[in-house]
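User: I'm preparing a small set of examples for a lab meeting where we compare how different chains pack in three dimensions. I only have the primary sequence for this one, and I'd like the structure in token form so I can line it up with the others. Please keep the answer compact; I'll paste it straight into my notes.
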Amino acid sequence: MSTAQAAVLSDTHHVYTPRGRNALQTICEKHFQEFYNAYEESYADRYGKFRLDRIMEVGEHFLACGDYMRGVARIRCTNPDCGHDYLRPFSCKGFYLCPSCSQKRTLLFAEHLIEEVLLELPHRQFVFTFPKALRVFFRHDRRLFEDISRLIFSMVQEFYQEVAGTPIQTGMVIAHQTFGDMMRFNPHYHAIIIEGGFNESGTFVSIPFAGLQKMTEYFRRKVVWLFVEKELINEEFARNLFSWKHSGFSIDNSVRMLDRKSRENIGQYMARPPLSLKKITYEPFKGKVLFHTTYSDYFKENLHMFNALDFLAELTQHIPPKGVQLIRRYGLYSSRIKGAWDDMPFVAERAPSGWKEEQVESGVSDAPIDFDPFFEHNSVDSQTYKRAWARLLAKVYELDPFVCPKCGSEMKVIAVIQEPEEIKRILRHLVKIGRSPPGLDPASLN
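Assistant: Understood. Below is the structure token output for the 446-residue chain.
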């Protein structure tokens, strides 16, 4: 055994144990069908009458996540003197219910922003919120997600052009989130915006934000008149909104993003799921879910006991319609313009390291890459990119599922098994010899 392998084994944090079924899956297994049956009568009026098929689709995928009978990968140590192996069940790759798959997506999104998207320029996070009187429209018209995203970007572009007195190319990544404290419906936006942009000659013009009162008022008027144009509210109600002393609209931009860590943190926050498993405790005998979080001024509590069906209703209200994109990119970060970065030298020279590597590897550019030392130190090679699953798990749990816990050698996938009878045969043998996989109920093999 090498010194490196011994070091790995000396740290128990690096030993990978496949996860079992989590508390949320247990809640869904016991109550999801009952929730489905009660939805039309008890929840449809509040949460949406035409959402049941979508909720069931996502729920069924989530319940199949980690189910050994749906298919497994067999992973074995490459050291012939060791031969340690284990079975890894398939994941659902869902983003709205599954905490495990959502966490992988969250980390991968933040990594993608850092390595492939965000230019090496100062950025700032903006948070846009709305009054209670308008929030209900977001629940029943999910097209508003895109409409408001475009409105916010156009507002920033208009401001930049007004300040600079010339057309400015800037970039924005924006995420729409529907959840607030204790999963209540609270639509709002998180945006990463370049603090300035490029003029027609390719010179970067820095445009810092100072004071948000006028920007908030401009945002309020743009949004209210958008609602009027879409005939969601009438002009009388709009003018009533304008008369409110406390408008309910707010903008916060207190967080600047000047280094890699701040970008990673905000990227993860933008793509986070509506629920963390750390916040719930399930009491199966009572059919209750205890939700614990930091003290909420809105609820005047930090603990709340949900009936299991009410808990599922609160959680599933945040599942978006199929095909709706909750994270969008505009300007220099849009797919169309980003595809032309190599023709924009003033942008390419400030591009993130991952994008520069891709240009060299694809033959688009053979010029040497001038990395910032900080980014060079934290960049990952192409082989690591191909093993995203292992890398993401290592970031979450401080471990590597492809390092053998017995000898420290590399582990590889040697087979993918999807035939139910073959899987049952293997699992019965593992149960018989005392190596039952985590989360497996032996009774399910009968």
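A couple of notes for your slides: The longest helix spans residues 144-164. Confidence is low (pLDDT under 50) at residues 1-16, 366-389.

User: Perfect, thanks.
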